[in-house]
Amino acid sequence: NKSILEGISKGEIKSELHQTYISGLKKTKEKMKYMEKYGPAKHMPDSKKQKLIEFLQETAKVAFGGLLNFSYAYDVLLPEAMVRTIRFTEKCTLDEAWMKLSET
Question: What is the pLDDT at residue 62?
């Protein structure tokens, strides 16, 4: 949901990934490479993957005053979008959704 991701980007919705990214050191940010670890997006058709990437990149601009930040889009917004989708589709808690995501 776009409003949830924008809320995360603005710091209005709690997100440990957002907090770590915004306040983290470069070394900490380098450990956040979720795009490689959480791979369900790699099974999407290219056209849908491109739309998702464009959406995440636009939403990431909210956190950086209109500037595009690829790392934030992939390391914060992508896993947040995935975990919230799992939560919605499987009707589970956020913690359970994070555990399910880490199992993929």
Answer: 74
Which is more confident, 21 or 2? 21
Over residues 67-93, the pLDDT tens digits come to 667 778 888 888 888 888 888 888 999
DSSP the chain: -HHHHHHHHHTSS--HHHHHHHH--HHHHHTT-HHHH--GGGGS-HHHHHHHHHHHHHHHHHHTTT---HHHIIIIIHHHHHHHHHHHHHT--HHHHHHHHHT-
- The overall longest dimension of the chain from CA atoms, in Å, is 35
The pTM is what? 0.72
- Give yes or no for a contact between 33 and 75, defined as CB atoms under 8 angstroms apart: yes
Do 87 and 94 form a contact (C-beta atoms < 8 A)?
yes
